[in-house]
Design a protein that fits this description.
single chain; 124 residues; mainly alpha; two-stranded antiparallel ribbon; rod-shaped
Length: 124
């Protein structure tokens, strides 16, 4: 006990367990149980992938739209031929497909990167 007439004793703090930071956010559980936080995270992922798809689609449409415009501006391209095939037909029939394949490859690569970032965030 303390002596009523003596100087007061210093307070001691008793710690039963060390605290390692703020509350751990379990984002994977949030996503799986479809809580408000999980829904916001999934909506953000869908929004990011939609934005990516729209940007790639606009890029492809712009490149494909430039082909007829280029033929209109340079009429000499309509008479040029390669291996007996006129250049506009060759471009539209053969050159467009590798470009579309490349756009699909680029979208898949960027979408997988976005999904991996989402998984990394959910694992934290």
């Amino acid at each position: 006990m303390t002596d009523p007439g003596g100087p007061p004793r210093a307070r001691e703090r008793v710690v039963l367990a060390t605290r390692r930071g703020a509350r751990v956010v379990r984002t994977r559980v949030e996503v799986q149980e479809q809580t408000e936080v999980g829904e916001v995270m999934v909506r953000a992922l869908v929004r990011a992938q939609l934005g990516l798809a729209v940007r790639i689609a606009v890029l492809v449409a712009a490149v494909l739209g430039l082909i007829p415009l280029l033929v209109m501006v340079l009429p000499a391209l309509t008479t040029a031929s390669v291996f007996g095939v006129r250049l506009p037909w060759l471009v539209l029939g053969a050159a467009v497909y590798p470009m579309l394949y490349g756009a699909g490859w680029l979208y898949r690569r960027l979408a997988e990167h976005t999904e991996q970032e989402f998984v990394d965030l959910a694992d934290d």
